[in-house]
Amino acid sequence: MAEGAWVTVQLTVAGYALALVVALCLCLARLSRFLALRWAMGAVVEFLRGTSAFVQLFWVFFVLPLFGITLSPMIAGIIVLGLNVGAYGSELLRGALTAIPRSQWEASVAINLRKWQYMFFIALPQALIIALPTMNNMAIELLKATAIVSTITITDLTFQAELIRSATGTTAVPYISIFIVYFLMASLITLGFRRLEARLNEGLDVVKK
After folding, report:
1. Counted domains in the chain
2. Residue 146 and residue 164: Cα distance in Å, rounded?
3. Which structural domain range is residue 48 located in?
């Protein structure tokens, strides 16, 4: 069971890191001045959100090899989790960015800041603080979604529980065990995000003063 927990942690951390990158890239693309880029990335977001992560995983792992692209189960799982959760995250981040008062953009123009400087040094730090509670939910949803990778033979918590059930004939003990482990992991994620939010808000209060 410990091995399965460690695999789940790896999937969650790597998948979430990829999801953040995907969310940021899609968000910035959807805020671009280029209409074609906005539409194209909007279609990508809707496709990723509108299709099942389970189907996406099977497509990446079983269909891509037909085109000469073969990925290990772990890499396939990380990519699918990152893309799926990142698509949702891009909309959350976009909403947080649009919540930034326009007066800040006007002030940045007045002091001759470039758009990328405004975005990365003024808008994004504030947007991340605004979106932090929802990003916590994203991390927990990704943690729970890792269970689907057991279908492509990754020995995560769910796969380990199934192995124990098959070997012992006992269903209750292994599945109650992973229920508790998932809950503890989600609780640790929430605790970490709450501490991070408190620290960032504390720093923001100092800046405001």
Report:
1. 1
2. 19
3. 2-208
User: What's the CATH number where 189 sits?
Assistant: 1.10.3720.10
d(Cα 131, Cα 27) in Å, to the nearest integer?
Answer: 13
Q: How far apart are CA 180 and CA 174, in angstroms?
A: 10
The residues near 135 (Cβ < 8 Å, ≥ 6 apart) are 89, 92, 128, 193
Structure tokens at 177: 């065990």
| Interaxial angle between packed helices 172-208 and 157-168, expressed in degrees from 0 to 180 and rounded to the nearest 10 | 160
Give pTM, 2 decimals: 0.87
**Which tokens is 9 given?**
């942690």
Across 52-86, b (16+ Cβ under 10 Å) vs e yields ebeebbbebbeeeeeeeeebebbebbbbbbbbbbb
pLDDT tens for the chain, 209 residues: list them.
788 889 999 999 999 999 999 999 999 999 888 899 999 999 999 999 999 999 999 999 999 999 999 999 999 999 999 999 999 999 999 888 888 888 888 888 888 888 878 888 888 888 888 888 889 999 999 999 999 998 888 888 888 888 888 888 888 888 899 999 999 999 999 999 999 888 877 755 544 44
State the DSSP code for 33: S
